[in-house]
Design brief:
single chain
């Protein structure tokens, strides 16, 4: 097999031994290096010139991408991915990572020594001890909603207490992490909160009780989408629903005001059918 093709199949970065097992000969490796098609990045590791820079950095440091960094790369909902989160063996020596977090741990799910990305299962377990409860729960629910991990496998694994709690609490109903956070913050209420309800041809984020509709706007709630949502809000009001629409900023930065508004609506029995 051609060295470049072998590297492409492995994500652009790989151990020399791995692509040799794939059928690349010593002669093929040498020619690829001499032509500049591939480059050495660490003893025993090579990469394509245009390979993913995060994978190259992980290979150079002997770590894997994990926790919120892996979740973000997989397209899952994460609250903050500004820092790089990496995992290293528990007995690894000093590893310098600018603007990053290293998790030294013994993985519950064995790691392939050729992999530069952790398994989602390991990433979720690490996240349970790294991130605040509600943001970790939002990612766990994002995973379950997409079916990217088997909840039964996690259930039978010897999870640490924080991960066990997240697995017990996670539900695959939230359409976005903001909905998970909203529901988590009001779980204490002794009022029925129903997520993802279809009303008059559109899905609403939550219905509290019978008639109190909560809509959570994303960061790009403008233009035609906003016009459509406003029209649906008006239709709901015409049919006796009370609508409270909140922004991402209100949810994350002004929660006491949001909660007070919702509690005032409940106190006025706006959540009950007439």
């Amino acid at each position: 097999m051609d060295a470049v093709e072998a590297l492409k199949k492995r994500g652009g970065v790989a151990r020399v031994d791995a692509i040799r097992r794939d059928g690349v000969t010593a002669h093929g490796m040498r020619r690829a290096r001499e032509s500049g098609a591939i480059v050495g990045i660490r003893r025993g590791w090579v990469a394509l010139r245009d390979a993913d820079t995060m994978l190259i950095a992980a290979a150079r440091r002997g770590v894997v991408l994990s926790c919120v960094t892996l979740a973000s790369r997989k397209g899952l909902w994460v609250l903050d991915s500004s820092q790089h989160h990496l995992a290293a063996p528990a007995n690894a020596g000093h590893i310098a990572v600018p603007r990053g977090v290293i998790h030294w741990n013994r993985p519950l799910f064995p790691r392939d020594p050729d992999a530069l990305e952790d398994s989602l299962e390991n990433a979720l377990i690490i996240m349970s001890g790294c991130q605040p409860y509600e943001s970790a729960l939002a990612t766990w629910e994002s995973v379950l909603r997409r079916g990217d991990v088997d909840a039964g496998v996690l259930e039978r694994a010897p999870l640490p207490p924080a991960a066990r709690r997240l697995l017990a609490d996670a539900r695959p109903f939230a359409d976005a992490g903001t909905e998970t956070i909203f529901f988590t913050r009001l779980r204490w209420l002794r009022v029925r909160i129903t997520p993802q309800v279809w009303l008059f041809g559109h899905r609403v984020d939550f219905v509290i009780g019978d008639r109190l509709v909560i809509q959570i706007d994303g960061g790009h709630h403008v233009g035609a989408q906003r016009d459509s949502d406003n029209a649906h809000d008006a239709l709901l009001r015409l049919h006796g629903y009370h609508v409270i629409r909140i922004s991402y900023h209100q949810l994350m930065e002004r929660w006491p005001e949001v909660q007070s508004m919702i509690l005032a609506a409940i106190a006025q029995r706006l959540h009950l059918a007439a």
